[in-house]
Write a structure and sequence with these properties.
454 residues; Rossmann fold; 8-stranded mixed β-sheet; 4-stranded parallel β-sheet; 18 helices; globular
Length: 454
């Protein structure tokens, strides 16, 4: 049973979810299949050179509601899971709102974030399948930390293509890579065909998470001894993140009847999918729980994108999935939060949005960071950039509750900042931060390409 002590609701290790919950199984519509370049649904055989078989089974069985968590993954999870659910009473008091705000704190993992929830099982399955090297792409230190720790847990070597820091030869996350003895390549790199082409045509500062994934995927296709890991977007990554939502549902039930709002920031959306997973079934059944996805104003994939097939990587090497996307060739402005500049949204979140079970809101970085500062000064936790966007919308909802005198229950998830030398709030406090406006011409070109108009 959950333990309630003050503002904190905790679970014991015995209450760690023993199964991942697949939110796709609760969709009222059938999720369109992943497609290969041949124009046909992707087969297991086509994915076997890239992913270990258990991940393929998780990806290609959308109707199966539960998948067991392997014992080695459970043992690894127990180093930081279950994570606490905390009532943000001091923030409630600062806002003078009747709303009750509960956050799931995902900062206790080896990476300091929810990234480890999927990095660990992916590394386990790759090692269990007899492979020694894992290759992946990312946009910064959190995924590098998560993957480095996971690889070390299961005796794997790791190579990560990570977005190049502007005007340097260094990748984001290089310090984290040294801790875990991870081989990091600054993307675009000269190690792959797609990286070399990007370097020669658009220069070293033209990297993105989508390009880093393309480089890693290319390497996985030509090296038989390695397997590819995906940080987000695909069905199995949303599945692995469901431990967050399952724990939160059990904890919240100990103190409330249930949430009125579940709020989360999205890049590609797997973390949000995991948080809302246990509430999808009741939402589809007509219960009044609002599922709110928060986007960065520069990359409004849900609210402005096209629902179509698109690849996860920038070069179209990977199979395509049906999702809301602003186009893999869309080049968003350089906001500080790189993870929220991703062009597409996980198929399960996209389908829920299309069926109007998920709402999308858009916030800019100055407003998000300002909201994050309010949270930090009230609760004492310095937030990661993506969590600031979540908190911005939580505060918006809380203030609506105040204006309407509603005592709604709002559930959300946060991760802390992992910066050590500088505060993530420095650009805001120094007055150098500015919102990066959506460039309509770029978006229009990308959307026209998706629609086949150019």
């Amino acid at each position: 049973m959950p333990t309630v002590l003050g503002n904190r609701v905790t679970l014991t290790g015995r209450e760690l979810p023993g199964r991942w919950l697949n939110p796709i199984a609760d969709l009222p519509v059938k999720l369109p299949p992943m497609m290969s370049k041949s124009g046909y649904p992707v087969s297991r055989r086509e994915l076997e050179p890239i992913f270990p078989v258990p991940l393929i089974q998780q990806e290609l069985n959308p109707d199966r509601r539960f998948f067991p968590v392997p014992e080695p993954v459970k043992e690894a999870y127990l180093d930081w899971r279950p994570t606490p659910l905390i009532r943000a009473r001091r923030l409630e008091e600062a806002l003078e709102t009747p709303a009750r705000l509960y956050f799931k704190f995902e900062g206790g993992s080896p990476s300091g974030s929810y990234e480890s929830n999927t990095a660990v099982p992916q590394a386990h399955y790759i090692a269990e399948s007899g492979f020694k090297t894992i290759v992946t792409g990312g946009a910064g230190g959190l995924w590098v930390m998560a993957m480095g720790h996971a690889a070390a847990q299961f005796g794997l070597n790791a190579r990560i293509y990570s977005v190049r820091q502007p005007c340097t030869d260094y990748a984001w996350g290089e310090s984290a890579a040294k801790i875990w003895d991870v081989d990091v390549e600054a993307s675009p790199s000269e190690k792959t065909r797609v990286g070399s082409h990007r370097l020669s045509t658009t220069g070293p500062d033209s990297g993105s998470i989508a390009l880093a994934l393309a480089e890693a995927y290319e390497e996985a296709t030509v090296r038989e001894e390695v397997k590819f890991a995906m940080p987000t977007l695909l069905n199995f990554t949303a599945l692995h993140q469901s431990v967050i939502g399952q724990e939160a549902a059990k904890q919240l039930a100990a103190v409330e009847n249930g949430p009125d709002y579940v709020v989360g920031a999205i890049g590609a959306g797997s973390h949000f999918a995991g948080l809302i997973a246990p509430f999808v079934k009741s939402r589809v059944a007509g219960e009044d729980v609002k599922l709110v996805a928060v986007e960065e104003a520069s990359t409004p994939s849900l609210s402005r994108g096209v629902y179509t097939y698109d690849a996860a990587d920038s070069e179209g090497l990977m199979p395509s999935v049906q999702m809301y996307t602003v186009g893999r060739d869309y080049d968003p402005p350089g906001v500080l939060n790189g993870s929220m500049r991703y062009h597409g949204v996980a198929p399960v979140v996209s389908a829920l949005y299309r069926e109007r079970y998920v709402e999308a809101v858009v916030h800019s970085q100055v407003e998000a960071y300002s909201a994050g500062l309010i949270f930090t000064r009230a609760q004492g936790i310095i937030l990661s950039p993506s969590s600031m966007y979540t908190v911005k919308e939580v505060i918006e909802q809380a203030m609506r509750c105040k204006a309407e005198n509603r005592d709604s229950v709002i559930l959300f998830s946060i991760t802390p900042s992992v910066e050590t030398e500088r505060s993530v709030y420095d650009p805001l406090l120094e007055g150098t931060m500015e919102n990066r406006r959506l460039e309509e011409s770029r978006l229009s070109r990308s959307l026209a390409h998706l629609r086949g108009e150019s």
